[in-house]
Amino acid sequence: xxxxxxxxxxxxxxxxxxxxxxxxxxxxxxxxxxxxxxxxxxxxxxxxxxxxxxxxxxxxxxxxxxxxxxxxxxxxxxxxxxxxxxxxxxxxxxxxxxxxxxxxxxxxxxxxxxxxxxxxxxxxxxxxxxxxxxxxxxxxxxxxxxxxxxxxxxxxxxxxxxxxxxxxxxxxxxxxxxxxxxxxxxxxxxxxxxxxxxxxxxxxxxxxxxxxxxxxxxxxxxxxxxxxxxxxxxxxxxxxxxxxxxxxxxxxxxxxxxxxxxxxxxxxxxxxxxxxxxxxxxxxxxxxxxxxxxxxxxxxxxxxxxxxxxxxxxxxxxxxxxxxxxxxxxxxxxxxxxxxxxxxxxxxxxxxxxxxxxxxxxxxxxxxxxxxxxxxxxxxxxxxxxxxxxxxxxxxxxxxxxxxxxxxxxxxxxxxxxxxxxxxxxxxxxxxxxxxxxxxxxxxxxxxxxxxxxxxxxxxxxxxxxxxxxxxxxxxxxxxxxxxxxxxxxxxxxxxxxxxxxxxxxxxxxxxxxxxxxxxxxxxxxxxxxxxxxxxxxxxxxxxxxxxxxxxxxxxxxxxxxxxxxxxxxxxxxxxxxxxxxxxxxxxxxxxxxxxxxxxxxxxxxxxxxxxxxxxxxxxxxxxxxxxxxxxxxxxxxxxxxxxxxxxx
Length: 649
Ligand SMILES: Nc1ncnc2c1ncn2[C@@H]1O[C@H](COP(=O)(O)OP(=O)(O)OP(=O)(O)O)[C@@H](O)[C@H]1O
Fold this sequence. Notes:
CATH superfamily of the domain at 179-429: P-loop containing nucleotide triphosphate hydrolases
Bound molecules: adenosine-5'-triphosphate
Radius of gyration: 24 Å
CATH architecture of the domain at 179-429: 3-Layer(aba) Sandwich
CATH class of the domain at 179-429: Alpha Beta
């Protein structure tokens, strides 16, 4: 057995929320109200409650992934107390991101000694599973969260990297191989052609001309067929401009609104080049040397990117592979060793694979940072520096570095320049950091005590339409999901304290419509491309405007329209008011007068400590950078983050 081989894959059955019977909900708010659309009574599932589930092993030897939908009333939220290892405060708002959850753990200060919330107890319905603990732990970051304290007695969580850490045994189910599944896609929406009206700005020297059609991209036959099978007829602006830039060998920082096709904008030219070069994955080497590495901040997002890469590479010799935390390392190593040309990874697990000598960097041509601003903020920047400083990594002059996001605060742009060649091109499709114009944004003034009822009213109104509900903390996610289940709303949840199998199951249930409501923390804010998400609800507004832009971008994708409803609690959200007004105005949407007042009146109104500065365009155009050095700015932000934590304590 190799040093990374792990024995056994047995796991204990995790707990989750789900529901079983479907029943008609009463019609609510048919007279209008805040959300009234006269559509009450659309029917929603009835069962809810949390239950255990267990079943026989699946084909990968995992047990318990099929959800035993019995006894909806058993309820009882297991809580997740006692899990923590004192994960510390090394990141501002990244506890929901996946750089290191169970991966390398050099970030931040492990073994944080805070905690202190353990006695708050959990939300229980007195069910038979409630006894496990409620919510232990203390708040550990600006966005998030409590971290559980105390012991972790669960042997399944022994990690392969650290003696005392949980071992990860989860192996995701095998992917379907049939073309219908591989190329499944949703239809582009009525506003797809309006993408052409968005202003595009390319800055930097000698940009290559844009292409207008996929034919002009001169894709090789297999790739062209795969693009067509994916339902792509015409490139989106970020593809029209981005693809030739990448094909010309230029470094790129690209900004385009959520849901406008950034993934294909980087995948297609990379795959085209690899196919043209005739690369082929070989399983004969103990160290695999990929030509491209793609990193993204969350496991679900990197998996989605991998699926896109796999789709476009289908039937060719180019082999993409994915590595991310929460999955058995041995399983992923075996997959890598089957040969890989494109490695998609979350930073921690990727660095782990490089550290173990399974992934070598000497042939690397492309390094892609998706959600680049997130990958370079305080949370992931050290990992990114470690990645580019890894042995064998070609210098920035000798690789092509590509960055994509819908948001680029100025300070991050400045930092990004460290990773890019000096003559990189900056591509801005529309307003840098702007919200997707296909999302109708509305705001409802609430008090923190009225939010739950408002949410329930809203969900009753929209019936079975797929809705993502964003909350600020993992604890809140559990609490709201439990509440909705008790109210017979078919709900599932995703957050960083759920097991990976639970996270994937939750997404699958949401995607399939089995659970039309997904309660999520920031872990699901970026990148996820889920069909038919009609509504995003900001139950808690985020403390950062970029996060708001990404969250509401889970709807209104690919030319489809969507709606975002945000609960605005003047007591808590005032610091965001000014940024919200800016976002709304730039998206040409109505600004409620009360929001405007809130933004521009009152002591300290609109002051937004966490906003890192709107970049109206390529920061190299100058003028708007703060005077001080980026590093001291980041240090100042750290201080703000720390202060935030302390307030929460
Ligand atoms: N040219 C195209 N024609 C039709 N559909 C497309 C095209 N380009 C992308 N899509 C589809 O549009 C959807 C959104 O694309 P993608 O996820 O790449 O958006 P994004 O810009 O990366 O969004 P985000 O900022 O949220 O990460 C996907 O389902 C994708 O398959």
